[in-house]
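Question:
When you can, review this sequence-structure pair and walk me through the tokens.
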Amino acid sequence: MIRFFFRFTGLFCLAAAFVLVIYDGTKSIAGNQLFLTSVSTLWGQISPNSLAMLKPLISPHANGVFWDPVALSVLAAPAWAVLGILGILFLLLGRRRKPLIGYAR
């Protein structure tokens, strides 16, 4: 059951990443320059309240080290890349195990 959830989530993330690639590509072709939708922009459009609650949640841990270099770089990354990486990771977690050959267990 949990493998199904991981595979479903991975496919959903990959589908969303593909939609974002098409969106950014169409916007870039129409504007004649490169446009990339960042994670913070996408998150702010979907749920601005949860994005505002993220900094107080993360910054107290490890003297703010998790917020400044880690979280801000993930929030500034293109959304299609982050969703694509998450989708691939979820698909790898949900894959079936290889069958054993012979009597080795």
Summary: Residues 2-31 form the longest helix (30 residues).
